[in-house]
Structure prediction request, 338 residues.
Amino acid sequence: MPPATITIVDVAKRAGVSIKTVSRVLNREPNVREATREKVTSAATELNYTPNVAARTLAGSRSYLLGLLFDNPSLSYIGDMQMGALRQCRLSGHHLIVEPFHAEGEDVGARIRALIATLKTDGLILTPPVSDHPEVLAALDEAGAAYVRVAPYHDPAHGASVHMDDAAAAYQMTQLLLADGHRDIGFILGHPEHGASQSRAEGYAAALAAAGLPYRAALVRQGFFSFRSGVEAAEALLSGPNRPTAIFASNDDMALGVMSVANRLGLSVPKDLSIAGFDDTPSARVVWPQLTTVRQPIAEMGAAAAELLIERRAVTGQAMLLDFEIVRRDSTGAAPAP
Prediction:
């Protein structure tokens, strides 16, 4: 039977259940036995059944659309976040709308209200820094809109959230460099409007303090999560006579900028300079030497945020904490001899 002719009636017949039960399973409603849920899911997969979003929308109050808002210069980060959310949406017969939303400037509240009215989604996934913008949150609360905040820093208990422990990840990465004998560790801050940037800076400082080392402002430079800002920060850190033996950048794009400068200056990585990043984007694995980095579960956070909205569990206080991983590759090594 061609996929276009498959209906919920066919799925019900194949699974041996009622049409209402199929509908409850497809809509992720509670109080359905796991065995029944598995039978319906298997039947839908075997028949290659695709829910008709328009028909479902007319039948109820849901639009079966989710929105993802971003204001982030890292295309890898947004791409991974989008793919995770999209994967979860497809499992549930939902669609994902991805919208850039610049959280700077005037009338942020008016713009978010207009966006809600235009998109008519069942909920929004807010990525940083949008997830920490007070006017955005106030406008969504006023409208009674469902949303999930990804990696919030300010007032994390406000609304539902999905996050990882950025401070702990940065702490562990700094510890790795310290264990290699590095004592002059440069650090490139993330975008100042992103809450995760502050958390990562706190983790770096805490690891230094635990090792009995002072926090030296001369070894810290501001970045903006872009390759260009990584280049500029590295040029400043490596231009003086007392340059660091290692640089930890708050994301991979900036770490690649550091690699570019090191190569131009004739510095061997990691013999002369160890370089570490954060995110584990695809670029971290194709650059040479491959980048030591923090594997952030970006796609998994996108999927988890979508799942909370689809299952209508995006309520205040609902928080999901995902694990990270320190990935050691060839861009870091023992500190050079004095």
Summary: Residues 54-60 have pLDDT under 50 and may be disordered. The chain has two domains: 65-164+298-323, 166-296. DSSP finds 13 helices and twelve strands in the chain.
